[in-house]
Each structure stands twice: as C-alpha cells, then as structure tokens.
Amino acid sequence: MVFKISAFLESFLSAIKYAHVTIELTAISFVISLFLGLIIATIRHFKVKVLSQIFAAFITIYMGLPMMVAIVLYNLIFMTCYPDIALKLHINIPISEINPIFIGYFALIMGYTCILSESIRGAYRGVANVQFEAGYSIGMTKLQTLRRIILPQMVPILLPGMQNSLIGLLKASNLVSAISIIEIMNGALLPSVRYYSYLEGYVAAALVYWIIGATIEILAHYLEGRVGNYNKKSEYKTGRTEESIDRIKRSEEKLWQA
Model's pTM, two decimal places? Predict the structure, then answer.
C-alpha cells in the first residue's frame, strides 16, 4: 500500500474545514458541564438534604453508561417521541430539518457533568476547613467565602483534571458521527470515500486532533504556571489569616478562663 500525499493533503484540508464543529461541540459542552458540575459538587459537598442523595444516585448510575450508547439512545428516543410532541404542541418543523447536533450536545453535557462534578468534589476536599473559618472570622457569608477564598484555592487542584477532561471530551466528540454529524473524523473521510484512501484520511484526522489537543495542553500548562505564581503571592496572606484565627481563639480561651 502506497501512502498518497495528495490524498492526505485533501483529507487534511477537509478535516480543517469541519474542525469548527468539533471545537464548538467541545468548548460549549465543557463550559456548560463545568457550571452544572460545580453546582452538583457543591450540593453534595455540603450535603444538602434530598438533593445530595438524588445527585449521588444519578451520578453512580450514569457513570456506567458508555457515551456511544447514550448518544444513540438519545437519538432514537428523540426520533420516536418528536412526532407526537410536535403534534401536541403544534410545531410545524419536520424532524428532517432539526440539526441532530443538539442531541450530541445533550449527551456530552450529561456525561461530562458527572465526570467534572466528581473532580470538583475532590477539589473541595483538598481545601482545609480552616479556610472557611478564616472567611467567617472576618465577617464573610458562606457564599462570599466560597467565591473569594475557597474557589480560587480549588483552581490549582482542578487544573490537571480539567485538562484531562477537556481532552477526553475532544476525543469523545467524534462519537457524534454516529448520528450523522460531520466533524473532523467524517470530514477527513469525505475524500477517502471517492478515492478509497482511508489510511490517508485517518492519519489526517489524527493529525488535526493532535494539533488541537497539543494546543489545549500548552494553554493548560501556561495557566498552571500563572496560578502557581498567584498562590506563592497569596501564601503569606493565608498564613497571616491563620495566625489571626489562632490569636482570636487564644484570646477567647483566656476570657473564658478569667
């Protein structure tokens, strides 16, 4: 088998043409999943009654569902239920005119919300409880303490896991090709169908995925460096705050003894 450079270049350009679909699918799904995951992790960390147990059970069950199965399952449910729903709601849009990419968004967001919520819950445990006391000691509410003290300290703990999750989401995004969405993989294989040059098509798709993945890693390492510098500057302030808490506790003990 001869590797055809011309076929590879054509497949590469075709993959680049559809790269925006993969990037949008990855970026939007990640941002929404991160937001929802933060809410769920916060509810579970503070053990909110009822909701905490519901989310724990849901995540345990959903984490066992493969992404490909979820995408195909949601697509079949949508195609089966849409005609009846459209009839009842008087929607005149035929199912053939609805972009199936929304099903891909839904499946990816559901899956990665569970994954990111577990990562965020682990980051919560990585922050010492004394940080909450530090916020309360200077008159902050629980919400202010979370926003101004706890969440900034969770960022360095979260960054490596978020990088892996984002790259994993990038790789998982090609599964939407199962519901007829043209992204990087299908885009790279379009010329291969005409010339039967499938090797060149897959190599071209792999190269585009590698370029996007490498860019994500470079940006993540840059952010880790910036966050590390910020933490070094804030270590002194944090130490002084903990010293203040200790002094307050010692003063209270002396008052009680007196």
Answer: 0.83
